[in-house]
Amino acid sequence: MASTLMIFLIVILSLMSSQARILKGERAMQKNIDNQLLLHELGFDLSKLKAYRKMSTPEPRSDRVSPGGPDPQHHF
């Protein structure tokens, strides 16, 4: 019983002290830069590509109108 409790405490303490880290973070960033460089070398305008990407991404509609509240003639 005591040995099981001791093993449990060791496992819990080791999990508490572990830290998360990003794997392949720099590699992914470098790949993005390489893609942009390749597109630029192929003659694409990166600013136009960003604009096209922004236009193709659906944005939430903001033309909704909130109601003015309860109708005063409804409640007599």
UniProtKB/TrEMBL annotation:
<keyword id="KW-0732">Signal</keyword>
<feature type="signal peptide">
    <location>
        <begin position="1"/>
        <end position="20"/>
    </location>
</feature>
<keyword id="KW-0964">Secreted</keyword>
<dbReference type="GO" id="GO:0005576">
    <property type="term" value="C:extracellular region"/>
</dbReference>
<protein>
    <recommendedName>
        <fullName>CLAVATA3/ESR (CLE)-related protein 5</fullName>
    </recommendedName>
</protein>
<keyword id="KW-0325">Glycoprotein</keyword>
<keyword id="KW-0221">Differentiation</keyword>
<dbReference type="GO" id="GO:0030154">
    <property type="term" value="P:cell differentiation"/>
</dbReference>
<comment type="similarity">
    <text>Belongs to the CLV3/ESR signal peptide family.</text>
</comment>
<dbReference type="InterPro" id="IPR039617">
    <property type="entry name" value="CLAVATA3-CLE"/>
</dbReference>
<feature type="region of interest" description="Disordered">
    <location>
        <begin position="54"/>
        <end position="76"/>
    </location>
</feature>
<keyword id="KW-0379">Hydroxylation</keyword>
